[in-house]
């Protein structure tokens, strides 16, 4: 007999989605989250306060602002800030379930984590985006202060308010609207949007009202751009 392809498709979609950010999917049969690298895994001596850190992933790049003392401020989808104010719970490493529900509910938080938790074993690029905003780079202290002021719960949108928007505002002072076209024209972001929408459909069995725009709007805007 043929196996039902739906669970296999769902597993593949979720695995790809988890690669977009620093949360990794649970290994098959695992009872807990894969731990991040131990402290000291990264040499932070080359990082300066206010630096923009990039961690390349399969489809996305995850971004953060280095605050000094092995701390990085970054924006992540997370359902928990919308249902509790307990800072100790929120500050725990974001689980796969929290991340998926945050994407679907369009909620997130700007959080401060160690470099190890932020990068999760990935390679780190420093200030790589400066070449795109070479005349707009703010002072390092200003970038760090902007990031610190935004720490806490926030809305999330894969296209309009994500980790890239957060860092471009902090380091370059760029309004979100100025980076939208650049993101939409990036085919990786379009594909990622499709994966997010399809994953939520497969997991929930129905398409929530926010899912269809997530799938189709990026494609049409990209084609029109």
TrEMBL record:
The record's section on InterPro entries has:
LRAT, LRAT_dom
- The residue ranges of the LRAT domain are 52-179
Q: Which domain of life is it from?
A: Eukaryota
Q: Share an example GO biological-process annotation for this protein.
A: vitamin A metabolic process
Q: What is this protein called?
A: LRAT acyltransferase
- Quote one Gene Ontology molecular function term: phosphatidylcholine-retinol O-acyltransferase activity
**Catalytic residue list:** 163
Q: TM segments?
A: 190-223
> What is the residue range of the signal peptide feature?
1-28
Q: Which GO terms describe its cellular component?
A: rough endoplasmic reticulum
The protein's UniProt keywords, in alphabetical order, are: Acyltransferase, Membrane, Signal, Transferase, Transmembrane, Transmembrane helix
Looking at the keywords, is Cytoplasm present? no
